[in-house]
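Morning. Coffee machine broken again, so started the prediction first thing and wrote up yesterday's gels while waiting. Chain of 300 residues, entered below exactly as on the submission form.
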Amino acid sequence: MDKLVEKFFEQRALSKDIQLNEPLYKALLYLEKSNELVEELCNKNQSELIKNVPWPTMHDMYRRNYEYCCGVISCFLVGQFQSSEALCRTAIEGAVNLHYVSLGDSISKQIAYFNNHLVTERKQNKNWKESVEASNFPKAGKDHHLQKILEKEGALNHYEEALRESLRLAGVDFDAVDLKWPSIFDRFKEIGEEVGYRTVYAALCSQAHNDAEDILNKIMARVIDDVSGMEEAQWIEQYNFSLYLMLRALDYQITASAMYVAKFNIKVDALVQLKKEVIETTSLVIEQGPELVRERITVK
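Came back before lunch.
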């Protein structure tokens, strides 16, 4: 077992006795190798990187999404496939955000990202307040909610002012940026992944929103006559589909990592090679999956 894989297990208190097939082992290794590469490249070039105003926040975005990817794999390792898929959606969206911000005017896109958050949270506060005031809560309960809303508004104002001042010191006018943060579809489209939005991301939204697909599959396994092995076949299909989605999340993550680092004129050949290896492993899972399912099904 590679030292990077061992370290992953140790840091997350996972047993190293968990069985790893080849694609799963490779997925874990690809993630840890890519993270090691990104951190090494950034450490090596930090004296130059720190001169770029967008860089520290972009690295924060990178590290946050690396942790999401760790969560995807950790859930999978303990057999929580649906949870792994749901978290894949977050990991892919985070990678798309980093990739999108890495293109063009990174600082304006970051400001749009922050502004979108502030506007959304303030709108939620407004709706929260209206719901509390219209409720039949006792006065003490309403007062408690209204106080929390005031505290949250204060925190949002503090965030905004801190951003404005810190960027001013770096020569950036926060209020001069009128760029809007695009929809998730437009972010996928901007990075050339419109089809990925319609397929992989749409499938993951299905799991994240707890739609009926998995339950329908369970029903089909019970009601189809003259076929044995359906339940086991469905488990294998779920396993392989979740593994496939995990690998796609890693593909997005490594691509975004390469785009982020290359933004600052740093060579990313090793990351590009890792992306190729992820694609090869993903193709193997796609090819082998249907046959593994067919082997379990017997028509009486």
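The chain has two domains: 3-105+191-295, 106-178. Going to sketch it on the whiteboard this afternoon.
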